[in-house]
Amino acid sequence: MRGAYGGPRVLLRRLREVMAEPVTAQERLDRIVVLIAANMVAEVCSVYVLRVDGDLELYATEGLNRDAVHRTTMRKGEGLVGLVADEAEPVNLADAQAHPAFSYKPETGEEIYHSFMGVPILRSGNTLGVLVVQNKAHRSYSDEEIEALQTTAMVIAEMIASGELAPPGGGVEPVGRRPAHAGGSPLSEGIGLGHVVLHEPRVVVKNLIAEDAAAELKRLDSALARLRASIDVLLDEGDVARAGEHRDVLEAFRMFANDRGWGRRLHEAVLTGLTAEAAVERVQSDTRARMQRQTDPYLRERLHDLDDLANRLLRELTSPGLGMAPAVAELPENAIVVARSMGPAALLDYDRSRLRGLVLEEGSGSSHVAIVARALGIAAVGQLENATGLVEAGDAIIVDGVSGEVHVRPTPDVERAYADKVRFRARRQEQYRALREKPTRSQDGVDVSLYLNAGLLVDLPHIEETGADGVGLFRTELQFMVATSLPKTAAQEALYRSVLEAARGKPVTFRTLDVGGDKVLPYMSMESEENPALGWRAIRLGLDRPALLRTQVRAMLRAAAGRDLRIMFPMVAAVSEFDEAVAVVQRERARLDAHGHRAPSSMSLGVMVEVPSLLFQLDEIARKADFLSVGSNDLMQFLYAADRGNPRIATRFDPLSRGFLRSLRAVARAGAKHGTQVTLCGEMAARPLEAMALLAIGYRAMSVSPAAVGPVKTMLLSLDVAEAAALLEPLIDAEDGPACLRPALQAYAAKRGLPVEP
């Protein structure tokens, strides 16, 4: 039958004319099925649309009983139409009724038709419906006809996705613009209601049908050449030229870009009559639909590479040379950023006054971007599969950072329910604020200091709002990450002075610059490392570049003139590193005195305990340091060799396991032995159940996010610390007890009625 019909280009040309007609969406769809049937010499052409309830509804037909339109439905997976929708693959049969999946619908009158070809209506890899042609004769449709039908399905997909098609008489809505609900992992508490901003916005292809196929092929080939050249340049640059895992990833990326099969499929799509952009979108949508149904994790991960490659190619076609800049310039009010993955610096690029939430396909609760989200006070959810494929820019969206749920295009009922939830949280926060003047003292009279983790000047008002005892961790690197160049000494001094003034006499612990890993400064040249979390970062960078550390210390000393100053050094792995850092501070203090500057009234120098090697040097470091602060996030990941940014293993080990609690207890005991204050400033302390365990093993100071002060304090006021210690200590010391003590602690909290839910 090859050549027995007008061909794809004729079909698309006529389709363009139909799309331009001033008619309703239903009338346009009715004309499209007539056009396809005539062009393909088919006796039947039908469109089935996937509805929000998961059923497929007949929306238009030429050849079947017209009375069956909007009356015939089938489940996804039912019949041949359901099979196409479920598998997202074309089905081409010469004798449809002999297929085991055939389902007879008597109202349609299709029993006289034998041959069947159905193709999925896809958009961004998501199935929106099925397009079908049928004939009485036993025949197999040609590859060219399948290609033509797939191309036409793209046009119908845009109609469905735009929301133009509406069911008659208030029927069930099509799936294209349906409300969607998905669950991920909570990263930052809170509820965000707003509109989607794609961190790497997709190119919206509006012109699907080509005027000149030869010209489109030329544009495609030029864009492919530019894309491949840009990847070659990336691989040849000095910071990735060395061998290593990062280079292997880019080599695989280059392999995909040069894959002949991918190029051939793009060419074939253009030859059907599509523009170059529409061809890229068509091929990638088909690929995404297939790979989303793969069970092999490796193949599913490669989908990210192919998506990235397709997006880069689309940008080469539409905006050559402009790259993949994030959409940070013009944010809507109440913006919810949706991304595949993101580093903390990228999140800080957004206007914080308009940012209400974050949704990531990747990311764990202890990743740095999650920590920054909590510092900004925005709701965040991670590990949401295909998040970028579920949404369109501008979609209404609700992010529940407590449960990990995300609602896209929510119904009015859902919006009302979340509005009530926001009001309830506001009332609960009022209850927490009512406790701010109450002493942080347990039922059995144990006094505890609750500090805040902060990193921005806007965090400081939370001290008064929560009644916190000060700032236990001020992340100085955030100032460096939001700047376009290395902050001068004067700028650093101004910030530190403002922070101390805003604290109103309460203590502030400044952590020296902690960059490296996923916290990258765009203006600082950093060598690529295979294991950046274990590499040249934090105090290692400061000691190797002493001018950087000296400048920061000098700014802190000047800012704290006449005030108490607390400085903490991160990522210390050996006592000798602390000694070197102290020497830098002492030299700067002497320099300050020599030039007649007013000195701090007192100065305390401390160490973050986050590298396991320090666990074997606790007596030495506790004698030398003025205070210790446990960074539980990094200590946990290094102790268990579990990358906290890797969602597969970030939650594999529980912080309430016996092994980790033993390590934390050893630090607390060393501090008590030498009279050295010990604080825990990791995310572990922000969860009431974990905070209860910390109190039981001897911690009397914790630093948490502002939102966590209320829940932790509420738990503490009801807790008998001695009783909790009597329960926990034997369990930690037991040789044959349970590996994780969470169930035992939960049972104890339930028995005592302790409020341990965040």
UniProtKB/TrEMBL annotation:
Keywords: Coiled coil, Cytoplasm, Kinase, Magnesium, Metal-binding, Phosphotransferase system, Sugar transport, Transferase, Transport. Its EC number is 2.7.3.9. It is found in: Cytoplasm. Residues 210-237 form a coiled coil. It catalyses: L-histidyl-[protein] + phosphoenolpyruvate = N(pros)-phospho-L-histidyl-[protein] + pyruvate. Its main location: cytoplasm. Belongs to the PEP-utilizing enzyme family. This is phosphoenolpyruvate--protein phosphotransferase. It comes from Methylopila musalis. The lineage of its organism: Bacteria, Pseudomonadati, Pseudomonadota, Alphaproteobacteria, Hyphomicrobiales.
